[in-house]
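Hey, can you fold this one?
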Amino acid sequence: MSKKIFNSIWIVALAVLLASLVFIMGMTYSYFSDVQEAQLRIETELAAKGAAMDGTDYLEGLGKKNYRITWIDKDGTVLYDSQADSAEMENHLERDEVRQALETGHGESSRYSKTLSEELLYCAELLPDGTVIRLSSVRSTVLMLLLGFAQPIAIVAVLALALSFWLASRLSKKIIEPINALDPDNPSDYIGKEAYTEIEPLLLKMRAQQNEIAKNQAELEKTSQIRQEFTANASHELKTPLHAISGYAELLENGMVKQSDIRPFAGKIRLEAQRMTQLVGDIIDLTQLDGGADGMQWELCDLKSIAENAADSLQSAAAENSVELTVRGESASVRGIPQVLYSIVYNLCDNAIKYNRPDGKVSVSVAKEPSSVRLTVADTGIGISEEHQSRIFERFYRVDKSRSKEVGGTGLGLSIVKHGLMIHRARLELDSVPGKGTTFTVHFPSAE
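Sure. Predicted structure:
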């Protein structure tokens, strides 16, 4: 296709686009109004929930949005308004949307403002304490857009239609047939064909965009699934200690526990509370790491010193499990976040202790390499079968669920390790043989 034909295609496409735009904008107003009302309804419900929990602090945080927020007492007195002094405002008890909200729990209305020369939408929601949250917004945005551009759009549309018909009569045989034959879902089928030489860059972009969209869609679905699984698992993990605490407390409250059993029951309640505290702490740590550890201080750290501190904290747990925990190697500097590095070593060692055997060993070593620092955590425990090795870093995933209940833990330790390593751009290697043990090897970028 020559340059002249290419320009002709562009003109025809522009003409069709402009004509379509006129039609679409004519249909937009009613649809946008419905969407705006639905959005206002949702925002009102959210504002009502937020006000019920945090009061005016929450409402002030919404002040920058394109809504006017008013909080009205059950007698019609204005308690708060985002755009005016509530003390100087008149009683709102007789406003249609307020009366509806007080009677039915929800109210909506629209009124024309002579002062603003605009139509305002109102939506009100009743709070549990009997007060009413009302949001209002201007409805005129789309209408003004339509009125402002109606005349030039109509003129351009008429001219564009005339031009498109004239061009179509001359170019239909050469242009329309191959273009109509093009399947936008399969642009690769037309790349390299003579009839599509001029638009081949477009076809290449279409293919790249389709690949990118498919990739993004897969990532979104995976992220959504992980989030749903995480929420479900977290709820389940929190319910278990809560049920236990509630059960023990109910027995104590009803006097159904012998005097000699009160202390053991209190101990069980304390252990379950500690489990909840650990779980919530791990969730907070994981959430912070998901955000990229924003706000955390990076500094030069001695990895061996951090490993020794983590091992010291776990010596009592190792002794209880009859496991020998040792740290060896040389001082080596890495640039990182101290508390995250500590959490990485701590969780690797904690897992190695919990899933070890009596009289087993956990060996931690730190060594310098030409361009990295190597951290190794090796144990003589039960090992991890190959089918589970790719999933052990998933949140709440446990290889041996029955053993996990015995040793405790939250199921988030290795997930915290994974996200901590990602932040530090560290590389992890896993070598495990069921029945013989597991070795985690981490390569941190060297700071020297």
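The chain has a mean pLDDT of 78. Let me know if you want another pass with a different chain boundary.
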